[in-house]
Design brief:
Chain lengths: 139, 139, 139, 139, 139, 139
């Protein structure tokens, strides 16, 4: 079993808030992350897949194929977007790094399985000082 | 003459667009950076001051003082903010990295001169792939 | 289960040596790390906690709370300190990166459990070329 | 149980291709990585060993000893070399990052066991955008 | 006057040697960089242009246009190539980082002038431990 | 004219204080950097030399020669040392990053001139958040 990881990046706006709360309540829980006028980040995404090496070409998975899947499924939907307003798979969810990592994992699972690999981990940096890892429901 | 540089960071939302243009015109010139729903970045700011070393304490400038000036004058006004809507010194200006670097330089010039140092350069990274440097009107 | 990681840094002096050995014996085993006049490092600390995401706020743990715990329990005790002479939880221990990672884990375990999260891993870089990971007694 | 990791680097040329295929077939599968005139990379290698901390010296393993083993067994054979033509342990294998990580692990396993440590993981970056991890046959 | 910098990368093989020297003579002067079987690097290129900010769009230069010029003029010719054998503008030159930086500058000067900007500096990293800067014939 | 830069690192202990001041006075001016028990850093040093490219070998200067000079003149004297107590060229000087950069420049100037190159700049990082540049007395 080998693990291969591809790094991609996207830049997006977001806000942490609950619609049913007042701005004051949101400010108390989420601090400046609740700014109603939005703020944003350069997100860095690491997608790890695992499996056996194909003896024919020495690859676990063709990295160009993996990169295309990540770009089509995640990056094109999120890059230079407002996560709360424009990302279909985040509708109705808090735009926390935790939820982003879980939702990105769920988006990637099917297309990566379809090319014969196993999605092992999604690791998402919001800033250089904090990141979230999600390994799927089993772990 | 010695040059000392302090790094600070802020996360903000912005949009490149001209109010007098249609969304289509803005899209043509600014691409996805014109998204009306905003996007954002982790900005990294390097502020360089120059001068002589004080023989008494070995400092060109006390870095804590420099950091406080940068935080009060720039970071607190920009961090977790919408640059177009909320940053007073960017009002009426295109929120490009070029204009941001120039405006941050102008904000810092007076308070840094007031502590007896010379502001030499503001270097601003929008992403790890592009940055702007501004050295003031003289250069 | 989700894993979230917070990065913090501290700068400290230390020395590797055994009091019951001569300087020559210490030099033989620990090399230049045994310098009786001390040397130091910029340590980089990554603290990973795991658990379920709170559906109410989308957080596994509030990162500000986590950062405060790390700062109060570890950073304030170690930053700009001499690890051998001044850090209470390192008294009587060799100041190796291995022991530092284990001791930092032990310091963090209780206060992190107290906020309802599980301390999963402490990862400590001594330089950019070497780091230690400790996952607790169970692993 | 503690895990300690050492980083080393090497610069090498390689090519992805199957000798029994035409250049056109190789181009189709491996893209520009199949260039018959070679290309190259700055590889970054992270070697992780695990075990108990020696209470006498606070070390899991002496990092200088570990670094010497990695340099003698891997770096000296690969640095400034052509992986396809000159690296004995890659003869007859596709020079993919996956196969490199596996083969480097196999090279390091015996000498690291000989110093009383356990080789846990080999992590190899080909570029800053992709890396492979291998944990041995058991995982 | 403002300075804006764009980062691009390419991976290539090369060799330092003089055809009129023996392998032994080349080895003596160039060390392992003269390996007749080639070696390679992940090169990182920073291209800095300077000029006035266009008041209409807030740009010194459109970064997408700059990136396209760098890619068409430099990256496509060098990425996954053998610098000695395949890069037209390096024919007959020693493939040192110094000569690469100068030659890349010369390649970029005309197309960058053609879009109304001034090429200020080419900065080229061969590894993370060494880089060359070239500012043109005037400096 | 071309500029080539070599990166080296060293780890050292230091303290900012004036012997003629009390600990309280030192604490007031230098804060935690005045800790009488020392603290330390991983310093990162960038040495830039400039000159013409030698048409015979394509080098401004042989980087191995430059690295040897930096190591013999600076790194061996500072690595794993106490800067205040053990570094001959810092005797009687405040161990600030400013003074370190100036003193390292002065140490390197003669041996670099002796190999026919010009020392252009010493850039010294104390942490990833601050660095000093010194270009010699002329600038």
């Amino acid at each position: 079993m080998v693990y291969i990881t591809r790094k991609e990046t996207f830049n997006a706006a977001h806000r942490l808030f609950k619609a049913e709360w007042t701005d004051e309540e949101n400010l108390k829980v989420f601090g400046k992350c609740s700014n109603p006028n939005w703020h944003g980040h350069n997100y860095t995404l690491f997608v790890t897949v695992c499996g056996e090496v194909n003896p024919c070409n020495g690859f676990l998975v063709n990295l160009k194929t993996l990169s295309k899947i990540i770009n089509k499924t995640v990056i094109e939907k999120m890059d230079h977007k407002n996560i709360n307003l424009e990302v279909d798979f985040m509708k109705g969810k808090m735009a926390s790094t935790e939820n982003l990592a879980i939702s990105i994992f769920e988006q990637l699972e099917e297309p990566i399985t379809a090319i014969g690999a196993n999605l092992y981990c999604v690791k998402l940096f919001e800033t250089e000082n904090n990141y979230v890892e999600y390994f799927g429901k089993a772990k």
